[in-house]
Design a protein that fits this description.
heterodimer, A: about 450 residues, alpha/beta, D-Maltodextrin-Binding Protein, domain 2, six-stranded mixed β-sheet, B: about 290 residues, two-stranded antiparallel sheet, about 70% helix
Amino acid sequence: MKTKLKSYALGALAASVLCGPTAFAATEVQFWHAFTGRLGELVAEQVETFNGSQSDYQIVASHKGNYSETLNAGIAAFRAKEQPHILMVFEVGTATMMGAKGAIKPIHEVMADAGATFDPDAYIGSVKGYYTTTDGKMLSLPFNSSTPVLWVNKDALKAADVDPEVDLSTWQKVGEVLDKVKAAGSECPLTTAWQSWIHLENLSAYHNTPFATKDNGFAGLDTELAFNSELQVQHVQAMGDWAKDGKFMYAGRRNEGGANFRAGECALFTESSAGYAGISKEAQFEFAVRPLPYWEGSEGAPQNTIIGGASLWVMEGHEADEYKGVAAFLNFLSTADIQAKWHQDTGYLPITVAAGDKTKADGFYDKNPGTDIAVIQMTAKAPTANSKGLRLGSFDQIRGIIDEELEAVWSGDKTAQVALDSAVERGNKLLRRFEQANK
Amino acid sequence: MEKRVTFKGWLLPLLLVFPQLLISAVFFFYPAGQAIWQSLFIPDPFGLSSQFVGLGNFKFLFGDSYYRASFVTTAIFSILVTLASLIPALLLAVVADRLIKGATVYRTLLIWPYAVAPAVAGVLWLFMFNTRVGVVSWYLGQFGYDWNHVLNDGEAMGLVVVASAWGRVSYNFLFFFAALQAVPKSVVEAAAIDGARFTRRFFTIVLPLISPTTFFLLVVNIVYAFFETFGVIHTITSGGPQQATTILVYKVFSDGFVGQDLGSSAAQSVVLLVVVGLMTIIQFKYLEKRVHY
């Protein structure tokens, strides 16, 4: 690990030498992120724009691998006292970061210390809520956020003699459509990505049902999982029955199902709104975006969905004027122009109300119908304690457990009730361990 | 007659083995000691605080039925990987040993897979058996077999075993081939003159003569299956479906580096250390007696 860090340091040194004399004059701010490909280019572009716009600070962005690897790199660097100023952490790492008092500097503090103007109300409630304490203090800056929606292959529906504009707002109606599509010989009427995120975490929020006690963990580390209540059991059982009848095709724990959908095999696909970039690029068929379905008759549904993605955490242990640079950069990222561009380029949600308004005023939603569905779904109602987000320790592992138990349902080995009970019991053990580690 | 050369005094021998001792100390004793120490704590990921829990991490592990089940999974996996990498390697070596023309080309080609890193091998096999675009699963589909290692645990196990064993076949082949070349031709020819057929010659003469190599490979391959296969498992199944392919070392990796639970991860490494230590002792104590040097 040490030699790795050394080579990173050498790389950074080489980069700063290559950047020329201005790099030495300006205060350097290290920013570690997890983006490659098109997203990586867009991040680099944001950083360049910021660096070009002023001469006091120089942001140095480095890619550190995928989400888990980036978090690990940040943790290892902190242990070696070589942490970056800004670290990108995915939403499931939120509780881990929050628990690390002494390693992180909350955003509201960074902004106050730097004397920067900072208006938390400018941010969209259901986006910032995930990264805000129960008394409204923002801990990290939401960077890329998305929410699950229903993707529809219109051509596949037409082929099954189903009206492509058919009502798919509820799971009951989706069920009827699946019957027809299956009867017409489709091998993949429905598939999904990120099953735990969409079919348990978001399902719960969307139906205003707790996923865990203590406001989904926001109100304390002594939280317990609660996703084995009637609503979740009924939903998972319905999906399990569809899997048995060949109406729901399970492709894998991450977004493997995306390949099937983009190839035109599947009629319906539950996936992040950020799937837009890939689907619009690859799909050789007419597609549409619909809001995530809900169960009709369930009280309070549809509430709002919750986000996935990552936020930017500021780490402790740097100089005051470097934190000024951090504050300036984070404020820059939150400006309407930058946010609106990010939202339109990537399909991620805008983090401020102003960016959403600007995108509308630009006419982007008219030109790209369906791209506003995610925004509407997130913002239609003010989030409740059940739909603000999740703050659970060891959540990456808990998702692993949920994946395992859901696989048992899809393969017919367990009923939904048995599987979810088991997932809750196993997950609770991890929560207790996390509580112990963060006393 | 055995010839024994002994050194006078201590200094020179100590100096000569010092590099080896140093390497063992730095790369084995120090980290192993750290793991044992860490296994007694539940630390937070950032190293800001840690709680002493005594044997709490071990209690937590053995109280978990999924962890206990992982021992069985590991045993099945290791046995299958060892067999799947030893038997084909021996067969190929026997065939190569009998080749007269083109033996070098054949040998070189067989060694190639060893150069492929386990994680990359995992991705290659995953492509071939991808439930949708995989070449092999497509052909299987033509024969009416619906390949789905994403949900079928037997198929998932089969796939990770093959992917793990594939590269090892090359390694084992090299050793078997060298061993076969070292079998004295005169003994084999004498048996042939006595009328022993190939299979009989192979089982009564060749196999016993190469048993030291076989024993060495057995130990090395089991250790490989235990420790070096997590890259393959990570890329192909992530331990699924359910926990069908979660072997012990994969859990060490995922709990430690994905789950940030360093206490549990350290405790698991200690358990693994003990298991492999015991196995090696058993192998040397019982199996080695049947090896003829």
